[in-house]
Amino acid sequence: MSDISTKRSLLRHALTLARGRIPSQLIVQLTDSCNATCPQCGMRRNTPFRRSLLSLADGKRIIDHAANSGIAALSFTGGEPFLYSKNLLTLLHYAGDAGIPFIRTGTNGFLFKNPASPDFPSRISRLAEALAATSLYTFWISIDSPDPEVHESLRGLPGVMKGIERALPIFHEHGIFPSANLGITKAILPPRPAAKAGSPATAEEFRAGFRAFYRRVIDQGFTIANACYPMNIETDLSTSLSAVYEATAADDCVRFSARERHTMFKALLETIPEFRSQIRIFSPLSSLHALARRYSGEEDRSYPCHGGSDFFFIEAKDGDTYPCGYRGAENLGKFWDLDLKNPPCRPSCRECDWECFRDPSELLGPFQEFFSAPVRLAKRLLRDRIHASLWLNDLRYYRASDYFNGRQAPDYRKLARFDIRSTPPLCTQESGRTAFQIPS
């Protein structure tokens, strides 16, 4: 996307906020087929169930309605969407021609197997050329652990970490700057002695794991990173959620207590500023602060999720629409039948941590509140000044990151303003780590 197109999109988003809404996004599950063995996902290849593929006709009809309704961001997910690369590329082209500004998709990394094969450079170059010919804004690659052996063992995809490292320069040559998407599981933790097996993970362990991840992906050549928060709602009896998007599981690797989740979100919040000047990190500190507070036992001051109001999920099996991938009891029918000017739901849900919807709800919530209830916003910002400062810092960082445009290289001169070694933002340095004043 060009700078002019980006500015036009930002202007449209500002007008959307002025109308009391936030820029909308749609996540379309192209398929629930997968060729990986990730234990944290119910769609892994060794889980027996009948697999589905969204038809091209339905995909195009969905895109037409999305474009006519002003959808700002459209993501194609799986399963593994690149198992059906021809269909995927057709829909990426179609969405770009329809004028949707932010188009995203990603892979589990199977594309990068066998990096030593003679045809690897040409194969990756053809893929990069194909993606570059579309209007794709973000291309993500999933990574579960900074340890290559652990990651490849979990995914059942040997050799992919070396393949990713070899592939990234080829993508960059074609103007594609992929994002490393960390799926947070217990694989992020350093090796634990047998005596600590079963005990809650500590803040030090989480920080060590997150630091190792960012160092690994920076060394590999990534210029953007994001974190996918753990989901295991089937075993969480405190919610009324029912997953229709089976990117969740009951496996122990993704089961975290409320105490561990608090520790995890706080540790990620403390770690990210250490690397913000070296790689564009999408995860907003304000959202992590809100999630850490939520699991601290204190009052939950987070903004409700906009799933079903401005955000929607379409599953591959029947092509039906849901407020999000985890509110499976709320089938909204076919997307093209929805009047998005009069959305079916009001923002109210806080039951899951799905970052795809929770992060933008938290980041854009103050803008919406500014137009709808400015006095309430002023009280909120004064009541939680740490959150307010983190939010303002996020906005400055997003701008310095060129809004995570995956079609251009980062401007490290802009990112240097966030180097905590020279100007620690909103924090102090304690024992060599970044410390935020958030609930403990």
Anisotropy-based shape: globular
Please tally the β strands and state the result. Answer: 12
Poorly predicted regions are 427-435
Q: Which series of helices and strands comes N to C?
A: HEHEHEHEHHEHEHEHEEEHHHHEE
What's the helix count?
13
The percentage of residues in β strands lies in 5-15%
How do the strands of the widest beta sheet line up side by side? 7-6-5-4-3-2-1-8-9-10
Report mean pLDDT, rounded to a whole number. 91
**End-to-end separation:** 42 Å
Instruction: Give a quick account of the main beta sheet: strands, pairing sense, barrel closure.
Output: 10 strands, mixed
Radius of gyration: 21 Å
Helix-and-strand structural type:
alpha/beta
Helical content band: 25-40%
Describe the structure.
Helix content is 38%, strand content 11%. A ten-stranded mixed β-sheet has the order 7-6-5-4-3-2-1-8-9-10, with helices on both faces. Strands 11-12 form a two-stranded antiparallel sheet. The radius of gyration is 21 Å and the shape is globular.
